[in-house]
Amino acid sequence: MKNTAIQLENLGKIDYQTAWDYQTRLFEDIIQKKIANRENSDNESITKNFFLFCEHPHVYTLGKSGSMNNLLLDENTLKEKNIDFYKINRGGDITYHGEGQIVGYPIIDLANFSEDIHWYMRSLEEVIIKTLADFDIEAGRIEGLTGVWLGSEADNPRKICAMGVKTSRWVTMHGFALNVNTDLKFFEYIVPCGIKDKAVTSMQKELSQAIPLPEVQKSIIKHFENIFGAKFLI
């Protein structure tokens, strides 16, 4: 039986390692439940789904396929600027998290929705595209590149939302980082997502005003429920 209910948790501003550990615990609990279900198919129980909202203090994270060459600061300079750095187990290259950014971590069993990673990533992108449209920002995709972009390949392309996930047994972790009121200067110290010829932007920059994060979170929830056929439990 599929369970399309998702437990929503807003963690607020939280250290990256603490959030990563919490994600991992939820992720592994779901996987162990799936293993137990397979071993006892006559008495299967439903798997749970979670969605975590948070903000992180200044931090760079490097995905498992990323290059250290895309971090433009040395260890001492990172410490001077009070920026943490982690090599992590998601896909993708390097990205930045910081205040004024909405980070979303869906920890869900895709068996409850669709066992298709391509569908999952495109659906995540669509959630953000529709959210931005609620704030009169026209966004879309660039072929061959993950995430959500403004402009086109030929017209000032700039990334507003980065994405990177890990999956095992169709369970997901990590997720997306949407630049709302983000200080974009921190992207100058990296090659964002390993892409050298593209810019980064934020909702604040595009609209010339700060946007309340709860308003954006509310929009994300609405579109996630519609696109995934889910129901958030608050």
Which outline best applies?
A: globular
Distance between the termini: 22 Å
How much helical structure, as a percent, in the residues? 25-40%
- Computed Rg: 18 Å
Strand composition percent: 25-35%
Number of strands: 12
What pattern of helices and strands is seen along the backbone? EHEEHEEEHEEEEEHHE
What's the tally of helices?
5
Mean pLDDT score = 95
**Largest sheet geometry:** 9 strands, mixed
Parts with pLDDT < 50 across at least 5 consecutive residues: none
Structural classification: alpha/beta
Question: Could you explain the architecture of this structure?
Answer:
The chain is of the alpha/beta class. It has five helices and twelve strands. It has helices spanning 16-39, 75-80, 117-134, 203-207, 213-228, and strands spanning 5-13, 50-55, 59-62, 84-87, 94-97, 101-107, 140-142, 145-152, 155-168, 171-179, 199-200, 231-233. Strands 1, 2, 6, 7, 8, 9, 10, 11 and 12 form a nine-stranded mixed β-sheet that branches. Helix 3 (117-134) crosses helix 5 (213-228). The longest helix has 24 residues, at 16-39. The radius of gyration is 18 Å and the shape is globular.
Task: Please give a quick description of this structure.
By secondary structure, the protein is an alpha/beta fold.
